[in-house]
């Protein structure tokens, strides 16, 4: 620069800054002139602190000394942090944009679906787009991020996650925010050093088209960022009393402070600092008026007395000493306490306590319900001496902003009423919470009665302007809907509301005097509630008893039960046993009709409350064959989705089914759960369904909502296509040849306006040996959601475990030929195979056998021996016959031709020449071969036998020779 323009710098003419960090994490401190024409006299650059250097909370970095120093009192510093608590506009560094939800309609314009700054907070979108709010920050050391959020509506999916410079994101299970049950919720997450991008992401999902409440975000604080070189002054209405404060505390009520205050100051006696904490100024106190106090009844004392008492509205802002101010009226005289509410009794200390289970009262003493009756449980409030334990009141000055003033409704003996508010635009809220509902066991639910409970209240409004009384119902005080509203003055009247869902457990009466004036001009406008009665409440008390059908169907039944398996005869208290294999149905009237026979192939459980299947089944076919089934491999709970569905905006979702086919009392039921809300409501039974949002909507999580039961009782198991009014037509599924389908029939006790007879389900089990998966379940092609009318659901389950058990009739044997003395018997299945499990296929059998060659040789040998023997026998008998012929011829010759005269014996001695004859006759004394030889010698060559003829002379000659020898 030129010499005449150069000026020697003073310390106030420049400030210090750090250069950018180099690769080694080092930097320099340099002086930067505050004016552009300052160019000489600046301090030389010096080595700066390391880039990782930072100061603690309540400290700042003095650049002159490069040392951390504590902030002075009245100031604060986050040290290594930044805070965002003002949202008049989007703070620097924050980015918000809207994108089309993955799976949604690509033509949907989501450019305007962003987070919107709204003063103290920033609000999310409420349409079916994804709104993202992000903030990028570089941390020099590990730090934290904390914020407050208000998340009242489960129709919005709200997630917060962090992505670091390694592109690693927060675990999907911990990124989902919990529903806010009361007011603002706090959340805090640890951050790693380095670059971090914070994301707040919301997606509304309106299946029913109802209005959605946005998510609110405020007080975002991040620690671990670069140092701060200055401390910030406390805002008006806050202060920091000690040096080194990390934040400023709000001033207490009725005090105030200015900017950078170290203490809060009391207002002058004739002034007040507003009704909320953190006021920056004082206002003049107005003169006390009738709108500055309210009346109430004191609790009953030990003598059973109460009195009317007047109290100033806190915090008190009016002045009693000002001219024209009213004084607080004196308390009234003590009077006898009103009776307790029905279902309660008076204790010795004059307090009211609820009657025990099985007892009822009119507000004085408890009495036991007679035999055969049950208490009608609920809550009935008609005497207002104290606020009931399950009711509370609160004031909201504007939407989502809570007031310190909590007296909104006050008891007044015969009624409860709205006290004068801080401002006429305040919402005065009376909230009643109940745990849930249960229908009495004896309640006969006809086709026209579907409500779980009903709430009835008597009210009155007296107004001089446009006041409104709202009645809301929902699952908490934030997530509720306006049921009815009344404007202006309304005479004393009664209103009833039917409760159809077990999730409706919060009721709110909200009174607003006007929407236009913030003053206290209409404090005398009032709403009164004289009586509230709600029925069938779990944990409620009873004011009367009703007749009931005695049974042991429910363990928690208030009805005095007969023994298991018995019913009451005409309500007389006499119990009689039911017939075999029947259970007690609570909906049935007293009498034998309470005993219901179990359906086919089911047995009653031990508690006589339902019929169950042990997963086994015996079926006789028309041909007389016996089929045995064992479905126990399919008994475990199985889940599967339907085909994808789409909303009007194109968002995809599924109907998720859960099935628990069969099992005894100890079986695990099918469960469908609502994991969107904090309540985690779930239903259990045989078959249930819920709506599932795919993972694209909620990153890697599966979102399940709107669960309901399809079947909670088993009607029967049969091959018939209809049972007890529930049918499973064959046209729903393509027929399969072979075995008939086994059908499980279920029914649900839940009745809706659309399904006045309740829902039902049929599950067809079809034998398919080729299906090895256990969850091969399909829906009808004509009814993609499993139902054509919304009430009757049908499923087809194909599995090899749905086949009958294999028996001997399912296989045959094949016997092989005898090879080398071995014969094999092989067993094979009959085709087509329609069985599974049961008897296994027998192993191959091997046995010894005799071959054909052996039998052939044996036959030839035996035949040869038989032939020889036969020839020998023939020869023997032939020779015998020939000898007889010879003797006969000899006799005939000896007779001389005389008939009828036998010859006489010539001699007894053996004659010469008879040796050959004797040899022939003595066959028994000769061997077989000798006989054959003798036969051959006596044969002539001409083929004829030689028969010697002996004359009488030769015989005579022999006789003489014999005599001479003698």
Describe the structure.
- Belongs to the ELAPOR family.
- Its main location: membrane.
- The protein has 966 residues and is mostly beta strands.
- Among the domains are: 92-219, Jelly Rolls; 370-544, Jelly Rolls (Sandwich); 549-610, no CATH class; 616-802, Cation-dependent Mannose-6-phosphate Receptor, Chain A; 808-848, no CATH class.
- Strands 32, 35, 36, 38, 41, 43 and 44 form a seven-stranded antiparallel sheet that branches.
What is this structure's SSE topology?
Layout lengths: L13 E5 L9 E6 L12 E2 L11 E4 L4 E4 L4 E2 L4 E4 L9 E7 L15 E2 L4 E2 L5 E11 L3 E8 L5 E9 L20 E7 L2 E11 L11 E8 L8 E2 L4 E2 L9 E2 L4 E2 L8 E2 L4 E2 L10 E2 L8 E5 L7 E2 L1 E5 L22 E2 L7 E3 L5 E3 L4 E2 L6 E2 L4 E9 L9 E8 L2 E2 L6 E3 L4 E3 L8 E7 L19 E10 L5 E7 L5 E8 L2 E10 L6 E7 L13 E10 L5 E7 L18 E3 L6 E3 L4 E3 L10 E3 L5 E2 L6 E2 L3 E5 L5 E5 L7 E4 L3 E2 L5 E8 L10 E4 L8 E4 L1 E7 L9 E9 L1 E6 L3 E2 L2 E2 L14 E6 L12 E8 L9 E2 L13 E8 L11 E5 L6 E8 L15 E4 L3 H43 L20 H7 L6 H10 L14 H14 L1
Parallel strand pairs: 64-66
Antiparallel strand pairs: 1-2, 2-3, 4-5, 6-17, 7-16, 8-11, 9-10, 10-16, 11-15, 12-14, 12-16, 13-15, 18-19, 20-21, 22-23, 24-26, 25-27, 28-29, 30-31, 32-43, 32-44, 33-34, 33-37, 35-36, 36-43, 37-42, 38-41, 38-43, 39-40, 39-42, 45-46, 47-48, 49-50, 51-52, 53-55, 54-55, 55-58, 56-57, 58-59, 60-63, ...
């Amino acid at each position: 620069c030129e010499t005449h323009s150069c000026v020697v710098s003073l310390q106030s003419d420049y400030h210090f800054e750090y250069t950018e960090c180099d690769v080694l994490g080092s930097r320099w401190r340099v002086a930067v002139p505050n004016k552009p024409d300052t160019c000489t006299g600046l301090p030389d650059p010096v080595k700066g602190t390391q880039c990782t250097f930072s100061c603690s909370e309540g400290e700042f970095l003095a650049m002159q000394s490069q040392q951390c120093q504590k902030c002075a009192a009245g100031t604060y510093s986050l040290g290594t942090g930044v805070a965002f608590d003002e949202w008049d506009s989007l703070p620097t560094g924050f980015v918000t944009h809207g994108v089309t939800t993955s799976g949604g309609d690509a033509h949907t314009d989501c450019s305007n679906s962003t987070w919107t700054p709204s003063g103290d907070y920033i609000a999310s979108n409420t349409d079916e787009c994804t709104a993202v709010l992000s903030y990028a920050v570089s941390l020099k050391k590990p730090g934290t991020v904390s914020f407050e959020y208000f998340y009242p509506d489960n129709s919005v999916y709200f997630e917060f996650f962090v992505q670091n410079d390694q592109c690693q994101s927060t675990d999907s299970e911990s990124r989902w925010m919990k529903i806010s049950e009361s007011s603002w919720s706090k959340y805090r997450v640890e951050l790693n050093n380095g670059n971090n991008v914070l994301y707040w992401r919301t997606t509304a999902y309106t299946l029913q088209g109802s209005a959605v409440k946005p998510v609110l975000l405020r007080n975002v604080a991040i620690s671990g960022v670069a140092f701060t070189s200055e401390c910030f002054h406390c805002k008006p209405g806050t202060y920091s009393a000690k040096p080194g404060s990390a934040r400023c505390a709000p001033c207490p009520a009725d005090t105030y402070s200015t900017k950078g205050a170290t203490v809060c100051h009391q207002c002058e006696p004739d002034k007040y600092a507003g009704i909320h904490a953190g006021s920056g100024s004082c206002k003049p106190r107005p003169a006390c008026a009738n709108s500055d106090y309210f009346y109430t009844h004191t609790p009953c004392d030990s003598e059973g007395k109460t009195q009317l008492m007047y109290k100033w509205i806190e915090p008190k802002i009016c002045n009693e000493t000002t001219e024209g101010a009213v004084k607080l009226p004196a308390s009234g005289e003590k009077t006898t306490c009103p009776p307790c509410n029905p279902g309660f009794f008076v204790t010795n200390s004059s307090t009211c306590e609820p009657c025990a289970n099985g007892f009822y009262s009119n507000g004085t003493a408890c009495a036991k319900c007679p035999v055969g009756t049950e208490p009608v449980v609920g809550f009935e409030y008609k005497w207002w001496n104290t606020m009931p334990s399950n009711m509370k009141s609160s004031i909201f000055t504007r939407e989502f902003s809570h007031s310190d003033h909590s007296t909104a409704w006050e008891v007044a003996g015969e009624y409860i009423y709205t006290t004068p508010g801080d401002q006429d635009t305040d919402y005065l809220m009376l909230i009643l919470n109940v745990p849930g509902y249960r229908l009495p066991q004896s309640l006969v639910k006809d086709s026209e009665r579907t409500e779980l409970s009903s709430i009835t209240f008597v009210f009155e409004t007296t107004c001089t302007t446009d006041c409104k009384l709202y009645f809301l119902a929902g699952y908490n005080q934030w997530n509720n809907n306006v049921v009815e509203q009344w404007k202006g003055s309304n005479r004393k009247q009664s209103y009833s509301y039917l409760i159809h869902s077990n999730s409706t457990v919060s009721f709110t009466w909200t009174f607003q005097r006007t929407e236009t004036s913030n003053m206290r001009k209409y404090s005398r406008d009032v709403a009164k509630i004289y009586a509230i009665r709600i029925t069938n409440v779990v944990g409620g008390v009873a004011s009367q008893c009703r007749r009931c059908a005695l049974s042991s169907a429910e363990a928690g039944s208030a009805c005095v039960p007969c023994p298991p398996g018995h019913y009451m005869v005409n309500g007389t208290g006499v119990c009689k046993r039911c017939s075999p294999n029947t259970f007690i149905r609570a909906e049935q009237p007293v009498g034998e009709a309470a005993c219901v026979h179990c359906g086919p192939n089911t047995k009653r459980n031990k508690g006589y409350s339902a019929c169950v299947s042990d997963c086994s089944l015996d079926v006789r076919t028309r041909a007389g064959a016996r089929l045995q089934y064992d479905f126990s491999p399919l008994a475990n709970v199985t889940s599967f989705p339907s085909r994808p569905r789409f909303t009007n905006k194109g968002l995809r979702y599924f109907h998720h089914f859960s099935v628990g086919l069969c099992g005894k009392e100890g079986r695990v039921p099918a469960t469908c759960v609502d994991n969107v809300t904090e309540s985690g409501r779930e239903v259990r039974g045989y078959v249930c369904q819920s709506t599932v949002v795919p993972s694209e909507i909620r990153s890697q999580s599966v979102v399940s909502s709107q669960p309901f039961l399809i079947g909670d009782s088993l009607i029967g198991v049969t091959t018939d296509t209809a049972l007890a009014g529930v049918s499973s037509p064959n046209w729903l599924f393509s027929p399969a040849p072979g075995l008939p389908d086994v059908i499980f029939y279920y029914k649900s006790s839940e009745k809706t306006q659309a399904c006045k007879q309740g829902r039902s389900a049929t599950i067809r089990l079809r034998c398919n040996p080729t299906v090895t998966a256990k969850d091969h379940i399909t829906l009808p092609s004509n009814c993609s959601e499993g139902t054509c009318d919304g009430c009757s659901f049908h499923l087809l389950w194909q599995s090899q475990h749905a086949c009958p058990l294999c028996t001997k009739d399912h296989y045959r044997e094949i016997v092989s030929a005898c090879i080398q003395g071995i014969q094999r018997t092989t067993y094979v299945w009959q085709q087509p195979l329609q069985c599974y499990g049961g008897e296994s296929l027998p192993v191959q059998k091997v046995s010894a056998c005799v071959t054909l060659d052996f039998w052939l040789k044996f036959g030839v040998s035996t035949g040869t021996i038989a032939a020889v023997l036969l020839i020998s026998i023939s020869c023997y008998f032939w020779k015998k016959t020939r000898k007889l012929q010879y003797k006969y011829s000899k006799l005939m010759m000896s007779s001389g031709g005389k008939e009828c005269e036998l010859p006489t014996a010539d001699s007894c001695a053996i004659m010469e020449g008879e040796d050959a004859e004797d040899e022939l006759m003595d066959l028994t004394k000769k061997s077989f071969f000798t006989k054959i030889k003798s036969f051959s010698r006596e044969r002539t060559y001409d083929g004829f036998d030689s028969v010697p003829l002996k004359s009488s002379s030769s015989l005579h000659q022999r006789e003489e020779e014999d005599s001479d020898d003698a």
